[in-house]
């Protein structure tokens, strides 16, 4: 029971932190940095959720209880996360597993893949059982609900600088002042502030669960009132209470019953509306999945075209080098031809001089 209460409290805190973060980010209208208070509080709450129910591992140094262990599994289950793991390992200022886990969460949020990576972990709970207790948040339904809520963070842009951040020694303390204005949502109201910006499917399912619980509570109240009414009628018969008092009590019961019936009908209407919204959101989700597959196919074709162009460029560069070599050889041959031509012209000029001398000597001899 204690673990169930902890999971429920952490899930409610995560809902509030995501709601405040999305609302403040959309109102701010710019890229978020690491100094943004709602973003800091979101990471603190997420860290508490990932730490819930962690098993303590004994090492030579002492006991180790870090949430970075489960996050390292993502690299094996999802090859797309290898860049994050490599970046975290290449940060020399990170000395502890807690700091590496926080850096991993920062990078996953900037990639807008945080929900996808955690969903991969939840799909392999047999691996998570090595790190978490059976009643941990990541092993129960609350973990799936939180992962669904994290999809809504894909609408915000974050630019978090990891260099210079002291992630090892940060103390994660939840600042409840950011959520005081949202305390009225815990009295049975549906959390209407988190709209379709969050993960539509999981969030609508959670709303349906809350509505079903509310309907069950109202039905129990109606049954209790009926039992109370029957007891009052028995007491009227036993103690011979006057008809006027009985009539007043019956009127009060009817008024309360009428109010509960109205609440019951309103809740059912709201449940039907939420079911319609859920169907629409599922259709929209299927369209988004289709668009995503088309984009992946287009990216693959583009990569193939790029590789072909690169191969063509390499071949053209080789041909250019061969042409340059041929030109250089022709240049050397032309220089050699010019030198030989110059020597021949010099020889011809000398021969012409000698011929002129011989002609003059011949004229002298003739004379």
From TrEMBL:
<dbReference type="Pfam" id="PF02759">
    <property type="entry name" value="RUN"/>
</dbReference>
<protein>
    <submittedName>
        <fullName>RUN and FYVE domain-containing protein 1</fullName>
    </submittedName>
</protein>
<dbReference type="GO" id="GO:0015031">
    <property type="term" value="P:protein transport"/>
</dbReference>
<keyword id="KW-0175">Coiled coil</keyword>
<dbReference type="InterPro" id="IPR004012">
    <property type="entry name" value="Run_dom"/>
</dbReference>
<dbReference type="InterPro" id="IPR047335">
    <property type="entry name" value="RUFY1-3"/>
</dbReference>
<dbReference type="GO" id="GO:0005737">
    <property type="term" value="C:cytoplasm"/>
</dbReference>
<feature type="coiled-coil region">
    <location>
        <begin position="208"/>
        <end position="235"/>
    </location>
</feature>
<dbReference type="InterPro" id="IPR037213">
    <property type="entry name" value="Run_dom_sf"/>
</dbReference>
<dbReference type="GO" id="GO:0030100">
    <property type="term" value="P:regulation of endocytosis"/>
</dbReference>
<feature type="domain" description="RUN">
    <location>
        <begin position="33"/>
        <end position="165"/>
    </location>
</feature>
<dbReference type="InterPro" id="IPR047330">
    <property type="entry name" value="RUN_RUFY1"/>
</dbReference>
């Amino acid at each position: 029971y204690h673990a169930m209460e902890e999971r429920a409290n952490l899930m409610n805190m995560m809902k509030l932190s995501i709601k405040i973060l999305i609302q403040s980010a959309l109102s701010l209208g710019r890229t978020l940095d690491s100094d943004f208070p709602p973003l800091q509080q979101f990471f603190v709450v997420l860290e508490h959720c990932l730490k819930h129910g962690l098993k303590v591992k004994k090492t030579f140094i002492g006991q180790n209880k870090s949430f970075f262990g489960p996050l390292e599994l993502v690299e094996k289950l999802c090859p797309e996360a290898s860049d994050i793991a490599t970046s975290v390992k290449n940060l020399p200022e990170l000395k502890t597993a807690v700091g590496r886990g926080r850096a991993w969460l920062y990078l996953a949020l900037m990639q807008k893949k945080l929900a996808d990576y955690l969903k991969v972990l939840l799909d392999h709970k047999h691996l998570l059982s090595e790190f978490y207790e059976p009643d941990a948040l990541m092993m129960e339904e609350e973990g799936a609900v939180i992962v669904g809520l994290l999809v809504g963070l894909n609408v915000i842009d974050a630019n978090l600088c990891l260099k210079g951040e002291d992630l090892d020694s940060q103390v994660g303390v939840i600042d409840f002042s950011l959520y005081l204005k949202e305390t009225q949502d815990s009295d049975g109201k549906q959390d209407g502030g988190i709209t379709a910006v969050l993960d539509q499917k999981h969030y609508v399912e959670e709303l349906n669960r809350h509505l079903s619980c509310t309907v069950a509570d109202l039905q129990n109240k109606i049954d209790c009132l009926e039992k109370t009414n029957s007891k009052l009628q028995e007491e009227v018969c036993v103690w011979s209470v006057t008809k006027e008092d009985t009539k007043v009590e019956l009127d009060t019961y009817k008024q309360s019953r009428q109010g509960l019936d109205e609440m019951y009908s309103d809740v059912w209407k709201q449940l039907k509306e939420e079911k319609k919204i859920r169907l629409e959101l599922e259709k929209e989700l299927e369209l988004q999945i289709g668009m995503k597959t088309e984009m992946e196919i287009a990216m693959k074709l583009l990569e193939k075209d790029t590789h072909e162009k690169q191969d063509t460029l390499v071949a053209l560069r080789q041909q250019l080098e061969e042409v340059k070599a041929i030109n250089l050889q022709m240049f050397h041959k032309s220089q050699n031809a010019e030198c030989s031509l110059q020597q021949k012209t010099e020889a011809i000029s000398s021969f012409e001089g000698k011929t002129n001398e011989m002609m003059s000597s011949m004229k002298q001899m003739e004379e």
